[in-house]
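Dear all,

This email documents one entry for the complex benchmark we are building for the journal club exercise. For each entry we list the sequence lines for every component of the assembly. Then comes the predicted three-dimensional structure of the complex as a token string, followed by one or two observations. Please use this as the template for your own entries, and keep the labels exactly as they appear.
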Amino acid sequence: AQRVTQPEKLLSVFKGAPVELKCNYSYSGSPELFWYVQYSRQRLQLLLRHISRESIKGFTADLNKGETSFHLKKPFAQEEDSAMYYCALSVGPGGYQKVTFGTGTKLQVIP
Amino acid sequence: EPEVTQTPSHQVTQMGQEVILRCVPISNHLYFYWYRQILGQKVEFLVSFYNNEISEKSEIFDDQFSVERPDGSNFTLKIRSTKLEDSAMYFCASSEQRGSYNEQFFGPGTRLTVL
């Protein structure tokens, strides 16, 4: 069974400091990994996915299969980055996909 | 931009009562999902639905739960006899077929409180 682990419940950083939100996963096959974000009073929304290898809002995440990690990074935190961040793993055929979420990390950017 | 909508935003019910949570997925999406998040815990997959059938369900999704797409727009989650432990945020999501990957778009959630 797939599993996603986010070891930190809360991460507080000062504005302008680098951010790294940790995520480790376990899955025997080739998973698709994502980061979802939930800003205060807003819905869950996709931040980025490993397939696209893109940078969204300055965030990047690299899939490390050897370490089974997908850490989310940003070089300089902004106040508007404060939110809940969920690492997620998706399995399933090309149609429906079951998403398994981590427990989430609350990022608090201190002005 | 089209969004998934859910009603009601908050539902309070007595233990043992039936509740129906409603979702309107994005109109051209074909795959539908329900997740729940108990306060302080992670978001958990309940069920996926495609072509008027359940595609996959988790162990949480027992006989007390059912899903339905009663018309072309709504997607409902019914809990037949609610228990205290059913109190949670329930999220609906939908996705369209797009190659081997489907981005799931989430609704704002319905907070269910069972008294």
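Observations: Chain A touches chain B at residues 32, 42-46, 49, 51, 86, 90, 92, 94-104 (CB under 8 Å). Chain A has a mean pLDDT of 89.
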